[in-house]
Amino acid sequence: MSHHLLKRFTPGERLFHWVNMFTFIFLTLTGLGLYAKSFFGLTGLFGGIDISTVIHHWAGVLFIGTTMVIFIQWIKDITAPGDDTVGSVLKGYLDPSFKAPPSGKFNAGQKVAGWVALILGLFMAGTGLAMWFPFQLSQGLQQWMYFLHNLGFIMFMGFIMIHAYLGTVGVPGTWRAMSRGTVTKAWAEKHHAKWDAEEA
Amino acid sequence: MIVIDTSKCTACRSCQTACKQWNSLSAVRTECRGSYENPPDLSYNTYTRVLFNEVENGGEISWFFGQHRCLHCTDAGCMKACPVPGAIIRDAKGAVVINQDLCTGCKYCVFGCPFDVPRYDRSNAEGFGEDKAFKCTLCFDRQDMGMEPACTKTCPTDALYFTGKSKLDGIRASAKERGLMVYDGGSLSTNVVFLLEDKAGQYGLPAKPSIPTPTFLWRTVMKPVGVIAFLAGAVGLLAHYVIVGPKESDDEGTAIPPSSSPGEGGEY
After folding, report:
1. Domain shared by B148 and B231, yes or no
2. Structural domain of residue B226, as residue ranges?
3. Residues B201, B217 within the same domain
4. Which of A53, A138, A154 to mutate to test the interface with B (most CBs of B within 10 A)?
5. Which residues contact A98 (CB under 8 A, 6 or more apart)?
6. Taking the complete model, does pTM exceed 0.95, yes or no?
7. Quick one: B113 and B231 in the same domain?
8. Which residues 6+ apart lie within 8 Å of A54 measured at CB?
9. How many CB pairs under 8 A join A and B?
10. Of all residues in chain A, what percent carry a pLDDT higher than 90?
């Protein structure tokens, strides 16, 4: 029975995550053109600055919308108590011989990631809204919004790089959860033993 | 370089008028707001205006005539903030000029200016198209033809005059003799220099102008920080993959092999 497949995410959960992923890619590509003068050429990817600005604004709306929907979909598992800690999960990634306490549906790192995605998403949406509709804040505050939007992007990009790595080559078999909604029994036993036991 | 000697300004506002005339900027209907100051703010069609500051001091009235306009910084906040290559340029004579053909209307320059100068206009202003930023050009076009800027040319009292930046030391010396303070934007090294009789604030000028801190962090610091962080992240993840290796389960996460019998698979 080692090739038994477990259902991890519903089509609804995956749909929102796919939209979320694509809007993040579009936001990055359209936003990088305004990140620095030397990146301005990237605005040509979408036919110029005017179009890429419109795409950036509305992709941002879709992004924060889907981020919040995903968070609500998963809020029960994100807030569920667990035996593992961020430290134990991290040690598990850095030291292959280390046996971390068994994780539930989400391990401690994933729970933190859920919160980080929500908080950084709201942070980007808030500062982005100020950039979309300027002249609502004082000049001094508005200047900070530009800087904070950039700072937030750097943090978000770092977060997404780790997320994308662990969701694909870093933990083989995980991408299935996103692409097909299922994971193998062996995968569940290894990475989410408690969840595997509950599902069985 | 334009020198504005506030001690000689009579607030006749001929500089405002000459500026509009040369740049073909439309007039706006003025309105009495309890001050001679008009129009109330810079705009897409007002590049310079005389400020009237009435101050009561021990029963006496002092009237300070300042000027709200682009100071053409050598280290310009608007240029730092602008994301479009070539949309704001500095010419050889020190004029900082917005090229409305390239301007995308992002308004970053409006918020990056320490002197609150560039003005954004959504409408089809003066035939330049929608969504552009506007400000004084130091009459770079007149200078290219060997003429001085319209405002200095017209000033009847020589409160405004045009001179070379090399004359600044001489101007400083004579200003000192006359008890005037030279305001040159400090580290920004502006190409419009004021000679002031009182504190800069009385003329609507910031006492210690500088590139706004968030603009500096955003435009000068964040670019290398972001690029380094991105590369460090990529190298770090690659190093994890190569040195520690991925965290694999027994079946390496692969799905049902094609050879397995149908009954053996899961519900999916």
Report:
1. no
2. 212-245
3. no
4. A154
5. A88, A91, A92
6. no
7. no
8. none
9. 161
10. 86
Determine, yes or no, domain membership for B111. Answer: yes
CB-CB neighbors (< 8 A) of A96 in chain B: 244-245, 247
Q: Residue B28 belongs to a domain with what CATH number?
A: 3.30.70.20
Cα dist. B167→A52, B222, B253 in Å?
47, 38, 76
A53: left (phi over 0), alpha (psi -120 to 50) or beta: alpha
Residue B263 forms part of a structural domain: no
The answer to whether the beta carbons of residues A3 and B250 sit under 8 Å apart is: no
Q: Are B16 and B147 contained in the same domain?
A: yes
User: Could you tell me the residue ranges of all domains in chain A?
Assistant: 8-179
Q: Does residue B30 form part of some domain? A: yes
Give the number of domains in chain B: 2
Looking at the structure, tell me whether residues B109 and B199 fall in a common domain. yes
Class (C level, CATH) for A8-179: mainly alpha
Check residue A39 and report its DSSP letter: G
- pLDDT single digits (tens) B82-134: 999 999 999 998 999 999 999 988 999 999 999 999 999 877 656 666 789 99
Cα separation, A188 vs A170, whole angstroms = 15
Residue that has been written with the tokens 């993840």 in this structure: B237
Alpha helices in B113-199 (DSSP H): 140-144, 150-154, 168-177
pLDDT score, position B266:
46
Contact predicate B136/B149, CB 8 Å: no
Residues in chain B: 268
Same domain, yes or no: B21 and B116 = yes
- Taking CB atoms and an 8 Å limit, are A144 and B214 in contact across chains? yes
Distances (CA, A) of B95 to A12, B70, B72, B92: 57, 10, 6, 7
| B156 touching A (Cβ < 8 Å) | no
- Residue written as tokens 């030397």? A38
- Domain identity same for B183 and B63: yes
Chain segment A73-106, per-residue pLDDT in tens: 999 999 999 999 999 999 999 988 888 899 999 9
Reported as a single tens digit per residue, the pLDDT across A139-158 is 889 999 999 999 999 999 99
CA B201 to centroid of chain Cα atoms: 19
Contact A134 B111 (CB under 8 A): yes
Per-residue confidence (pLDDT) for residue B257, from 0 to 100:
55
User: Is the pLDDT at A38 greater than 90, yes or no?
Assistant: no
Instruction: Quote the mean pLDDT of chain B.
Output: 90
Domain check: are B184 and B223 in the same one?
no
In a domain, B76, yes or no: yes
Rounded distance between C-alpha atoms, residue B194 and residue B176, angstroms? 13
Region A39-53 average pLDDT: 91
| Percent of residues in chain A assigned helix, strand, coil, to nearest 5 | 70, 5, 25
Asked whether this complex has an ipTM greater than 0.95, the answer is no
Q: Which residues of A touch B80 (CB under 8 A)?
A: none
